[in-house]
Amino acid sequence: MTAIDLTQRYIAATVSSLPAASREDVRAELGTSIADAIESRIEQGEERGAAERAVLTDLGDPARLAAGFADLRLQLIGPRHYLTWRRLLILLESIVPACALVGVALAQVLSEAPVGTVIGQSISVALTAAVHVAFWVTLVFAILERTDAETGEEWTLEDLPEERGPDLPLSDLIASIVVGVLVIGAVLWDLADPVVQLDDHAVSVLAPSLWPGWIAVLLGVVVLEVALTVMVHRRGAWTTPFAVVNTALSLVFLSWALTLIARGELINPELVRLVLTDNGVGGDTPRILAVLLAAGIAISCALDVADGWRKALRARRV
Fold first, then answer.
1. Helices 20-43 and 3-15: angle between axes, nearest 10 degrees
2. φ and ψ at 244, to 5 degrees?
3. What does the pLDDT look like over 135-187, one tens digit per residue?
4. What residues does each domain of the chain span?
5. Is the Cβ–Cβ distance between 210 and 268 less than 8 Å?
6. What pTM was computed for the model?
7. How confident is residue 274, by pLDDT bands cut at 50, 70 and 90?
8. Are the C-beta atoms of residues 124 and 103 closer than 8 Å to each other?
9. Which residues have a Cβ under 8 Å from the Cβ of 174 and sit 6 or more positions away?
């Protein structure tokens, strides 16, 4: 293969993707530029063949060079839209797949599907939702990139984040302690002197059979949650150990609640009878209510765990 053959092949590969109207001009300009670069290397003592290969190698991929001549974008999403794309993608990926998973799981549980089917279908739909979100969001921004359209998002000084205070200010600490005391008081009051009056007699909300063992577990979790809140406030920020403890407490409470709901032992059976059965509400209604209660508790625990880890990771970056 002669040097001319190699150079002509490179030029042909470069101009092949260009509009016909500009090919000859680029061919002539590129041919002259390559010839001058080769002659410059030869004058420095290089062999013609080696000089030609070095010049063509330095020019790089012909497709990239052609994109430069044609002013074509070689990225799917450029820097103008990248940050907006990333923010929107992160937001949607944190919401849509989770909603899909919860929705499918609830539907499968209500249809009395086996546990394996519930888990498999929920995860499958969540993954599918995540893929669709990533694909369609990216496609939209790729189109915006190539049509020079604007997203309407423009950064201003008002977008600067506020100066961070402590992760747990004193007001939140006081609120957490008050809520903990109220929960403990409400549980003990409900069991000792029920305030719900039905058919002229008091009925507790929680099943009396939960006392003392199951109630002790619940009160212990509440006390430990309050203690964790105090420690976080004294430390001034969340840490990885705090996030781990928070996760463990949430899992203990979730296990406690789901176990009792599955056994039908959380809510006082007499209350269920008076409110639902005696009023002609039967069939799948109690089971549906139990599933919704379990889902609400699970979502609440998941959000609490996620919030703890988010604050711990944010504190590590400061």
1. 150
2. -65, -45
3. 999 999 888 888 877 777 776 667 666 655 556 677 778 888 898 899 898 88
4. 3-70, 79-154, 170-317
5. no
6. 0.62
7. confident
8. no
9. none
